[in-house]
Amino acid sequence: MDENTAHADTRGPAAAAPARPATTVWPALRYRDARAAVRFLVEAFGFEETALYPVDGDGPEVAHAQLDWPLGGGVMLGSARGDSAIADLPPGTGAVYVVTDAPDALFARARAAGARVVRAPADQDYGSRDFTVADPEGVLWSFGTYTGA
Q: Checking DSSP bridges between strand 129-134 and strand 140-144, what pairing results, if any?
């Protein structure tokens, strides 16, 4: 081996970048009306309702809901109650960023469902195309093509 090949990477293109692990971060949110939030997030953004556990049978309060994002990951949410780890945060507090491969189509869907526009779709200096809207209780939702460094 000469000095030009002594440090060559012979592992091939697949070895150059490590594989990303499965999504393990799940934002947790509290809403005054968690059932309405679930309906909105499914209709406006395309989340998939995976689980919904009421506090008391068919009562209005939600102990836990899981909404899956079609590209991986998701959010967990529930009714604002005093018995949770995030009980001191007021409902409607927070911001979430979600990766999408079709931000313009999703923006149109969100607007049609009544999301309040905070920032219309725009190309960013770091290569993403994204937008931000607020849900009915004020949580900010940003969707864009940035998948992380």
A: antiparallel
For residues 119 and 132, the answer to whether their CB atoms sit within 8 Å is: yes
Pair 65, 51: CB distance under 8 Å: yes
Q: At what angle do helices 103-112 and 34-45 cross, to 10 degrees?
A: 130
Sheet holding 129-134, edge to edge: 95-99, 140-144, 129-134, 116-123
Q: pTM (2 decimals)?
A: 0.75
- Say if CB 72 and CB 7 are below 8 A apart: no
pLDDT for position 2: 42
Whose CA is closest to 73, among 93, 45, 92? 45
Q: What is the mean pLDDT of residues 4-16?
A: 42
